[in-house]
Amino acid sequence: MTFYRAVKAFNLLVGNILGIDSVLRKPVNLFPLVHNLYDSTEGRVCEIGFTTDEGSIKLEKLRRARGDLRTETYHKAGKSAVDHIALYRLGVSWRLPLPHEATTYPEVLLPGRVSTLSSVEQQLNYLLVTDCSGSTDYNFILSTILKYLGDTSE
To answer: CB neighbours (10 Å) of residue 16?
Structure first.
């Protein structure tokens, strides 16, 4: 019985923010976030999974605190050498200043699979949030997701 009360409380809490009656029953398709965040100037892209026109599968990771794969020389040169890339996975982190000269680096990973690209309905129904120091970081992540998900979540 406790589980059902927890589900109901979660639905009420998050459902109002997302505008969904039953959050835990109606999945939100997060796959559009992969492209929307990559195409933005938001955050620092630290992981990308994609395919090329020639059929190769690439996974790039950049774990330095500074640097963005979108502007890395190797990634830019490779991307310009093909007509386009098909993204299926994305990791983005943000530098958020805190009081007293402290900084946090919350990160979102949209862990898509390459098989998603060949699906009729390209679905991704979960993401991973790491390195948050408190509710301020989580609220920032939630508002960023909502901003870049836009009307594509239906």
So the answer is: 10
In angstroms, rounded to a whole number, what is the distance separating the alpha carbons of residues 49 and 35?
11
* Domain annotation covers residue 41: yes
Residue 141: helix, strand or coil by DSSP? helix
Give the span between the Cα atoms of 146 and 143, in whole angstroms. 5
Nearest to 41, CA basis, from 76, 78, 80, 70: 70
What's the pTM value of the predicted model, to 2 decimals?
A: 0.79
Q: Where are the beta strands (DSSP E) in the chain?
A: 44-52, 57-61, 85-93, 96-98, 102-104, 107-110, 128-130
**Joined tokens for residue 25:** 């029953």
In a domain, 13, yes or no: no
Q: What is the dihedral of CA 31, 112, 105, 139, to 10 degrees?
A: 40
Domains identified in the chain, total number? 1
pLDDT of residue 153 exceeding 60 = no
pLDDT, tens only, 96-128: 987 788 888 999 999 999 999 998 889 998 899
Range of the domain at 93: 27-153
**Residue 121 within any structural domain of the chain:** yes
- Asked whether residue 14 is domain-assigned, the answer is no
